[in-house]
Design goal:
15% strand; 13 helices; alpha/beta; binds 2'deoxy-thymidine-5'-diphospho-alpha-D-glucose; binds nicotinamide-adenine-dinucleotide; globular
């Protein structure tokens, strides 16, 4: 296969490129990424890919890549992805998530559907947030749950899902879509809950819990997400959507308490951590949980997400390969072993973002 991976320098995209290189070494992988604040070339260090720095909204660039590199499979991750940012500034979300996806669809239609047509696949990566929020006893999101996006982020992802669907229905573009739950793992930008709280705990900074901390997410290790996408590309039915979940519905406070206890245990087991991170509560003999701080809730905060993954399990044989405990332990190890990666991130654009947003909460 010859893949074009958009957003391949972001969190999930980079993990997907690592995953694909390991599992499908004979394939060609081209990455297209605009290297926004969330994109990091270092996340692909040492990986054999053809990296193109560019914007998905550049339709002629994408047409050229599809044609000249003879691409047969486009895997679309590129997006503005952080809910809090979408609340502060929705325009970038409309531009990238809606107009950017539409630009890709137009390029794919031009190159792949002209003349007798070229065998191809357009795989769109989306989110469970398009389904809105669940009450405690509601059934989990299935592929037939009506769309009810609540944040500017999820509204723009919903719009992009509809465009992808329409390009299949109207023009016959060979599309699949996956809607997944909260990912965690290596290379995640430290604005999202798990890496933000880990790095804050290592620096002895407050852990800002929105509202009562009882919001529920279904945590999915990023490699399990990559496995799900691989199965959809290999065996998924064209025109269909598949929900991908981790089978790990947890309240935020449970995740945060797990994280604090794991950091404390790591410091107890390895005395060199106290020297590396002298400001950590754990380095001073205090529990990391002492850093927990309640802050104002996120406006429009969705209460609960949960994925019904029966369709992808029954049709394609998907099952997450790790529990949250295993996935989280591996993630903590990765962040402790890859300080250079996250330091380069927090010393750059992230620091500016913290200064303007985080301190204002
Ligand atoms: P991310 O923010 O970490 O990375 C996004 C990447 O897209 C970055 O590398 C960025 O440089 C690139 N990008 C942004 N705008 C671009 C543009 N105009 N042109 C080219 N590249 C551009 O995001 P992520 O967490 O890796 O999410 C990837 C995809 O998965 C997104 O579509 C997101 O909606 C979806 N998703 C994420 C999660 C999650 O938990 N992180 C869950 C469900 C779905
Ligand atoms: O469900 C899939 C979605 O998961 C993806 O589509 C999004 O791209 C991804 O960012 C993620 O959205 P969330 O809003 O669920 O993730 P986030 O890590 O921002 O927050 C997780 C939960 O933790 C949420 O209930 C808000 C809460 N939170 C988050 C932050 C950053 C806090 O309590 N404090 C914080 O500082």
């Amino acid at each position: 296969m010859k893949l074009l991976v958009t957003g391949g320098a972001g969190f999930i995209g980079a993990n997907f490129v690592h995953y694909w290189r390991d599992r499908h070494p004979g394939d060609t992988v081209v990455v297209l990424d605009a290297l926004t604040y969330a994109g990091n070339r270092a996340s692909l260090a040492g990986v054999d890919v053809d990296f193109v720095s560019g914007d998905i909204r550049d339709e002629s660039l994408v047409e050229g890549l599809l044609r000249e590199r003879d691409i047969d499979t486009l895997v679309h991750f590129a997006a503005e992805s952080h809910v809090d940012r979408s609340i502060h500034g929705p325009d970038a979300f409309v531009d990238t998530n809606i107009l950017g996806t539409h630009s890709l669809l137009k390029a794919a239609r031009t190159v792949w559907l002209k003349g007798s047509g070229t065998p191809h696949r357009f795989h769109h990566v989306s989110t469970d947030e398009v389904y809105g929020t669940l009450a405690a006893n509601d059934a989990a999101f299935s592929e037939s749950t009506p769309y009810a996006p609540n944040s500017p982020y999820s509204a723009t992802k919903a719009a992009s899902d509809h465009l992808v669907r329409a390009y299949h229905h109207t023009y016959g573009l060979q599309v699949t879509t996956s809607n997944c739950s909260n990912n965690y793992g290596p290379y995640q930008f430290p604005e999202k809950l798990i890496p933000l709280f880990l790095i804050n705990a290592l620096h002895g900074r407050a852990l800002p819990i929105y509202g009562d901390g009882q919001q529920i997410r279904d945590w999915l290790h990023v490699e399990d997400h990559c496995l799900g996408i691989d199965l959809v590309i290999a065996k998924g039915r064209v025109g269909e959507t598949y929900n991908v979940g981790g089978g790990a519905e947890l309240a935020n406070l449970t995740v945060i308490d797990t994280l604090c206890a794991a950091v404390d245990a790591a410091f107890a087991a390895d005395p060199s951590l106290a020297a590396r991170f002298p400001d950590a509560a754990a380095a001073k003999g205090a529990p990391s949980a002492s850093l927990k701080t309640t802050v104002a809730d996120r406006p429009g905060h969705d209460r609960r997400y949960a994925i019904d993954a029966r369709k992808i399990s029954d049709e394609l044989g998907y099952a997450p390969q790790r529990s949250f405990a295993q996935g989280f332990a591996a993630t903590l190890d990765w962040y402790l072993a890859n300080e250079a990666w996250w330091r380069s991130v927090i010393d750059g654009s992230y620091r500016d973002w913290v200064a303007t947003n985080y301190s204002a909460r």
